[in-house]
Each structure stands twice: as C-alpha cells, then as structure tokens.
Amino acid sequence: MYPFFYQKFLFPFYEGFIRGRKTLKYLRELEHNQWLNTKEIEELQWIELKKLLKHAYENVPFYAKTFDEHGVIPDSIKYPDDFRKIPIIDKSIIKSNWSEMIAGNIPNILTKSTGGSTGEPLHFGYTRDSYQWRMAVKIRGYSWAGYKDGDKVAFLWGVPVGKISPISALKSGLHHKIQNAKYFNIFNLTPKTMKAYLEEMRIYKPKHIVAYGLGMYYFAKFINDNGWSAFPVKSIILGAEKVQKDQIEVIESVFNCPVFDSYGCREFMLIASQCEHRQGMHISSDNLYVETIKNNFQAPYGEIGEVVITDLHNYGMPFIRYKNGDLAVRGHENCPCGRGLPLITNVEGRITDMIVAAHGKIITGLFFPHLMKEFHEVDRFQVIQEDRENLIIKIVPKDGNSNVRMETMRREIQKVLGQGMQIDFQLVREIPLTPSGKHRVTISKVSYELE
C-alpha cells in the first residue's frame, strides 16, 4: 500500500506542489522515449544537442571563444562528424576555466563536488532543472530492475564524512523514512558489522538492495562463508564500482535474485543501467549524448573507447564533450526488451582496490574519493597500502598550495580504519599513470580476504 500512496500522492505533492519541480513531467517523457526506435531517439537527442550548443555559444564565454577558435558555428552542426570538431574537455580544463564556463543568463547555479574516483576531485555547477532530469533518469533506470519509488529498499552505500549537524541528520533521517529507505555504511565492513547488517536487514525486510559493487560482493561472500542464508529480495542494483562476472554470480547465488549493474558518475548521476534482459546497459540518451572515442572518432562497435559525455540539460555550466576518465565498449545488438536506447556492454573505469585494516575490517577504495571531495585544496591524490598498519597518501596540492589539512584528513581516515593505522602524507608534484594511461586511486598490497 505504501508504494502506491508514495507514487500517486506523497511524491507528486512534495515534488510538484511543495518544491515546484518537474521531475514527474520529465519522468513521463523518459518513459515514453525509451520505447522509441533508435533513429527516433537519435533525432530527439540531436534536437536537444543543437539547442544546447546555441545556448552555450551565446551565453557561455568559454564556449564562445572555443567555438570561434575552431571554426564551429552551432547552426552548421549537422552530423556527428561536425560535432567532433568541438574539442574534448576534461577536469583540468574545467578547473582552469571555471568562471568562464558559467552561463551568464542563468541565475542561482547550484554547485557540488565529485568524489574524484580518478584521483582528481572536481567542483562543478549545474541547474535545478538538470537535477530534475537526473532524478527522473534514475527513477526510470532503477525501475528496469523492478524497483519503484516507495518500495522498501536497503542502501549499502557511502555515508557523509566529517561532523554532521543534528538538524542535517534529522532532515536526512526523515527523508529516508519517507522514501522507505534504510542506509547501511559501506565504509564500515567488518565481520561484526556485516553480521549486524544481516540481522538488521532480516528485520527490516527490504524488497530491493542498492549497493556499491565490491561491498555487496564481500557482504554476500561473508554470508556464504559462514553458511548462513540471506533474506529474500526481488533485485539488487549495483553501482559505483566495477564488479566481475564471478562476483555477481556469488551475489546472485547467496540472495537468489537477479543482480542489475548500473553506471554513473557524480557529474551526471545515472549514465546507463541494465534492463530485465541484462545484455548490456541502456544509455540515458534522452538526457546525455555519450560517445566512446578512439583516435578522435567514435570507436567501432565492440571496441573500447574513452567515454565522452555531453549533458543535454545542464545549461548553467554546460558539459560539452567531457572526458570523465572511463573506458567503455559500445554494444552493437538491439536489446530484446524493445527499448531503442543504445547499449554499452562493458565499462572499464574506476577500478579501485579494497583497503584492509587490522582486525579484518575492509573498506572500498571509493571511501577516499568520497572523503577527498571535502578538501578543495587537493588537486590529485593516490592512496597506497603497504601493510595493514600503514598507508601512504600522495597529494598534489591545488595551485602549489602547501596548506593541505592533513590532520583533519588523518582524523577522518582513522575514524574508519582505526587509530592504529599510520598515515604518511606526501606532497608531490605529479602522480604517474598506469601503463594503460589510467590513474589508480588506491593501490593495495594486502590480501583482502575476510578472516
């Protein structure tokens, strides 16, 4: 009964009447769009892209200058080859041109930070309207796994770091209660806490679980290794981390339900997600223009390319041909579900090692991007674990600033990994890439089998 009440009355009243948002309007559009054929979706996408380019050229100084320098006239963009004349941007370009990338005709730009899953946090702007599109995309994507807003759900997810005010904690708790959601801290996985999570979830009886990929694997493995049985759920939705096929099989075996993969990043939220056929992830092409680039051309089907994204609805700080640091493979086949949204079959980005503390506690390497987004003085970072008692954290300060809040950082890390964890901070000028050109956020030289 509660999901019906939430979907039909509570959520529309809150979103539409109280907050004045268009989330439900956009959701209806997205639900219609998904059943268009591929050509129709491309046409819709191209119309939105042309409008964005015209707006950026007329209202965003960075793009006015960039388009002029490269001979790009928005009205002359007729085909994807024309669009690729626009140079690709990345985090470093945005950081260097931040103020010039804000649209002069859009008031009240919202801002937030990425977690820096590539080791390089980013602070960026977006509009209230683009946020509503993103929320609608998430609702649609999760619904493909059978999850409807208002269903009872458990999140094995990241929680805020640092001190949280009582008012913020109260608001957050109330919001979760209304959403019918309960959160379990992914950054605190020990045999003791995982046993407690299992017992609490048995009582809570969630219909679905949304979780960090590797954290969910270790939770399922812990249950299996102890010979326990899991509680019944309809589906599990994974995000944030790349999970291997054999790890998904463990989760499915323990929970006896389908596992759905999803792909997103903080700059855009949900980029792609699996439908009921799970033969790849459908790209949210009615909200994003996603390219997989190889030698500045779209990579052939089945071949890996760099992920380059254009947000079709963020007019406040347009992201046009933004390289987010991930690699992906475009799928060639149409999905049997009948949706015209294109597929990506594999994402090779954001591979993070688990970090192991004494007494068997493990945390996902994504804890550190989650933490570092709070430290604006950090340009890039890398965490190296030599053994269970020692971490090396390499930091490239922003603009050569040596005033990095290391002691604050140390306290937050030790809250999670224990006071016995020794942390050696090293201020460096650069952090070398891997031979494949990727930046590893965490490197662990310690086995992370649970004891």
Approximately how much beta-strand content do the residues carry? 15-25%
Q: Please, what is the oligomeric state?
A: single chain
Number of strands: 20
Largest sheet: number of strands, sense, barrel closure: 12 strands, mixed
Distance between the termini: 42 Å
CATH H-level homologous superfamily name of the domain at 355-444: ANL, C-terminal domain
- What would the principal axes of the Cα set say about the shape? globular
Helix fraction bin: 25-40%
Biggest β-sheet: strands ordered side by side in the sheet: 4-3-5-6-7-8-9-14-13-12-10-11
Q: In DSSP terms, counting alpha (H) and pi (I) runs of 4 or more, how many helices? A: 13
Structure write-up:
The strands form four sheets. A twelve-stranded mixed sheet has the order 4-3-5-6-7-8-9-14-13-12-10-11, with helices on both faces. A four-stranded mixed sheet has the order 19-18-17-20, with no helix packed on it. The protein has a domain at 355-444: ANL, C-terminal domain (GMP Synthetase, Chain A, domain 3), CATH 3.30.300.30. It has helices at residues 2-18, 23-33, 38-59, 61-69, 80-83, 91-96, 128-143, 166-179, 191-204, 213-225, 245-255, 367-372, 406-417, and strands spanning 110-113, 123-126, 153-157, 181-185, 208-212, 235-239, 259-265, 269-274, 281-283, 288-294, 297-298, 304-311, 322-330, 343-347, 355-356, 362-363, 378-387, 390-397, 422-427, 442-444. It has 13 helices and 20 strands. The protein has 451 residues and is α/β, with parallel strands linked by helices. It is globular, with a radius of gyration of 22 Å.
